[in-house]
Design goal:
Layout (H helix, E strand, L loop, with lengths): L1 H18 L6 H18 L12 H8 L1 E2 L1 E7 L2 E7 L5 E7 L2 E6 L9 H10 L8 E2 L2 E2 L9 E2 L7 H18 L5
Antiparallel strand pairs: 1-8, 2-3, 4-5, 6-7
């Protein structure tokens, strides 16, 4: 129960923080929108009420991950935001027979050295096994994504949640004939 209370308090603090960014740049709004979406996906997974009921579909969504790449055109300004193993590329016509491409964003994968440094810095005690075979903990290709909640909590928190989710996980991933 301590984890659930802690997580809810953390999310409430994030919501308060996000509310203070009304007077910020388009880039900051996009960044905060991505954070808010991830927050919403993961908070819907948590047990609610006195009986700690769990929404199976929300739990499945939180355990799964999703990448996104968006573009916002505002008059002559182009803004892009992405998370995961996708990126925005702009085609620029040089002349009627030639087009150049311009990378507008970068994929968050192990091929991106800046992203690898960020992950290793945030996992200083796990650097020898946080990225294995080009994947996060040997499993996940994108190093950032919406959802994928089991990768975002500590081992202790994850184990506490697995105890709560155990019967839901068994029923969700059991093949029914």
């Amino acid at each position: 129960m301590n984890l659930i209370k802690y997580t809810r308090i953390t999310w409430l603090n994030l919501q308060k923080t996000l509310a203070n960014f009304e007077e910020c740049s388009v880039e900051e709004h996009l960044r905060h929108a991505f954070l808010r979406l991830d927050h919403d996906i993961m908070s819907e997974c948590l047990p609610v009420g006195h009986d700690l009921s769990i929404n199976d579909q929300a739990l499945e969504n939180g355990l799964s991950g999703s990448c996104a790449c968006i573009a916002l055109v505002d008059d002559i300004d182009l803004y892009v935001a992405n998370t995961g193993d996708c990126q925005a590329v702009l085609g620029v016509e040089v002349d009627k027979d030639h087009t150049n491409t311009v990378e507008m964003s970068h994929a968050h994968t192990s091929y991106n050295s800046k992203e690898v440094r960020r992950v290793l810095k945030s996992h200083p005690n796990e650097s020898s096994h946080v990225i294995k075979g080009g994947r996060l903990f040997g499993s996940l290709a994108p190093l950032r994504a919406f959802g994928d909640m089991m990768y975002k909590w500590s081992v202790k928190e994850r184990n506490q949640l697995l105890k709560l989710f155990k019967h839901h996980l068994i029923s969700m991933y059991t093949v029914k004939f």
